């Protein structure tokens, strides 16, 4: 039978057991032994699941108490000096958690290592820090112990590790990272030799950077590193796993590496498959990642089987069947879902179900008729999805066709609009505002919970929320803020709240996916054409505006962000789904304006993370993403002010596109980087108004008036003063009221002080 495997399995546990255990351990409620027992239980369960389903190998090394990149960092003893780790000694779990979460020593904070998104996923890894003059060494035996655990169960492990080049690529260092390669290869050799001694047959080295356009020197390093590694081993066989894209210009190099197995992502790069098969060397195995590890739909097994049969003949049984990438990025088990519509449920497949898909394909490749019948029936679900009335809305499809150029353009230019908006809004120089949310207090969370389980009526719930809005508006009046917000108390989450009010969205009970450490997210699933069920935000904003003389901003999550933070349909291009969301929001924007709302903010914090991994696709993505923003926003009259918000600071490379969004005001994250973002404006003059966040809401530190004056002055060097807004750098949802009171009072005072200076200058 053709061999099967997966690149990795979710580690959080079917009922988020690991999350619960970790958080209890951090609170000192359970001891290390208990934590380790729970960890082991999850690993064993995952292996048994893979074995029972019939995979040829079970994957070992994908488990982690926080992050698998950090696992490697700890394993090779690359501990930054500030954690006071004794050179060459064993790295224990507490040092491991300190690196992930920070700690204090004698009352002083020791900062955690940075955390960043793993490629284009919503999974965050802990960034390795490479310090000069430090050799890597084998500093713990966790991996080898896990191999033993697995073998003791009588199972055959395939071990996974992040590959050496990808590890370096993901790391940060003040010198050329490739300088660390020899020492790194040295420690990898030791690891591989140990695995060989344990009679492990395969090791999977994950090298997803192979789907990027890497510089030549990195390509050359691949050849050197893998030649070196393969020399050190005899029986152990290496598989290189590429995923999240095609091999592109790296293809020939990869095919020439002295390793035994190459894994490719056929879901993301189907167009490369034929070429690879044509060129594929006789001495290697091709692991075909054909079951989508990034989405939750049943695969079209009939179509896939046909393709695989052909390839198998050409490659003479030298193929393996696999998931496109690790299953870490999707929920674990569909059987846990009790409330999803039966018909829709039949279209879905989570991690556990995807394993079954892989196994059945391998059974059928050699013409097993009984199972082929199964595949035929299985594929019927896909047919039924195509035709289902829940998926298709004629009116939505018609509306998409009717989108015209004028949907995307405001009537007048920014300068003309500014004149009209000034007249209507009557704002001072350096107007103050906030990004939207205010602290989500216990009262708010409790009310939401009670409402969800039916303990309080909708009337009572909405009354509590209105009271919260009243409170939040009163607070802002007291601070003296110029443009107010309603505070978003009624929103559990900025995407879920909108999804719940849109047709075509569904929510799982238990579809958790690890985001980082113990944090999980439950992305909605977009299964059908999207339409607004009813007005979404209007009644809340109406209430907030009715109790304030100052303008209150309408507050919406943008179409790209809603798309980006959901599982999307695989039966139509992403941009079509995004356009549908954009049209639904366009209606909401129009309704807000009709109500007399003078400024509307459409948040797009996820716009940048949607950027494709490969630069050559940037333009295509940005074009449709920005069109969608405009479909939602350009519907308003010229005197209505459109705001947008983004929370990241690296956008030097996309700033020109951001300006094409033509929002009248953009608020952005800059406080964390000390206004470094403004470097982007040295080369590109942003034409509209900007609120460079001057208060870092991600920490508990409260900024002083002087701190904020300093930052505004710094901004005023690159942006004309009459185009600067004064605001925090993100929503205040996670802060405490005490901190917010202090910071916003200071923020308003800072603006007030500077107004005096600048107004004097101009008179
Ligand atoms: N308006 C949202 C808030 O303030 C924006 C959140 C975000 O940028 N992620 O919470
Ligand atoms: Zn933000």
List the helices and strands and how they pair.
Elements: E1 3-4, H1 17-26, H2 32-53, E2 58-60, H3 68-75, H4 93-101, E3 103-105, E4 108-110, E5 115-117, E6 124-126, E7 129-130, H5 142-152, E8 157-162, H6 164-170, E9 172-173, H7 181-197, E10 202-206, H8 216-232, E11 237-241, H9 251-255, E12 261-265, H10 273-279, E13 285-291, H11 301-314, E14 319-323, H12 342-345, H13 351-365, H14 369-387, H15 394-401, H16 414-425, H17 442-452, H18 458-479, H19 496-499, E15 502-506, E16 513-516, E17 519-521, E18 525-532, H20 538-546, E19 553-557, H21 559-564, H22 574-594, E20 599-603, H23 618-633, E21 641-646, H24 655-660, E22 665-668, H25 680-683, E23 689-692, H26 705-718, H27 737-762
Parallel strand pairs: 1-14, 2-8, 7-9, 8-10, 10-11, 11-12, 12-13, 13-14, 19-20, 20-21, 21-22, 22-23
Antiparallel strand pairs: 3-4, 5-6, 15-18, 16-17
Helix pairs in contact: 1-2, 7-8, 11-13, 13-14, 15-22, 17-18, 22-23, 26-27
Zinc ion binds next to loops.
Would you write up a description of this structure?
The protein folds into two domains: 3-76 and 130-337, TIM Barrel, CATH 3.20.20.210; 394-762, Alpha-Beta Barrel (TIM Barrel). It is built from 27 helices and 23 strands. The strands form seven sheets. An eight-stranded parallel beta sheet has the order 1-14-13-12-11-10-8-2. Strands 19-20-21-22-23 form a five-stranded parallel beta sheet. Helix 10 (273-279) links the parallel strand 12 (261-265) and strand 13 (285-291). Helix 11 (301-314) crosses helix 13 (351-365) and helix 15 crosses helix 22. It is globular.
